Amino acid sequence: TPLDGAHAKTWEDLKYAPDTYVFFNAEPLSAVHFSKHKFDPAITANKVYVYGAIVLSVLILLISSINFINLTIANISTRLKDIGIRKTTGARNQNIIRQFLFESFAFLLVGFAIAVFFYQLSEKPLTQYLNLKVYFPEGRMLIITLFVFVSLIAYNLAAILVPVAMISKRTILSLIKENKQAKKQFSVNNYSVMLQFILSGLIILSALLVNKQINYMANKDRGYDPHNVMMLVMWNMNPETRRSFIEELKTHDAIESVSTADAYFGEEIGMNGAFFEHQTEENFFHTTILAVDDGFGKTFNLRMKEGRFFDKDKETDFQTAIINESALKEYRGEGSMVNKDLYIGNNKFTVIGIVKDFNFRSLHHPLQPLVITRVENFGNISIRVKNDRIAEADGILTKLWKDFNITIPLNYTFHDQVFAEHYMKDQQARRLLLILSAISIMIACVGLYAISFFRIVRRTKEIGIRKVNGARTSQVVSMLNRDFIKWVGIAFVFACPIAWYAIHKWLQNFAYRTELSWWVFALAGGLIIAIALITVSWQSWRAATRNPVEALRYE
Question: What is residue 289's three-state secondary structure?
Answer without folding.
Answer: strand
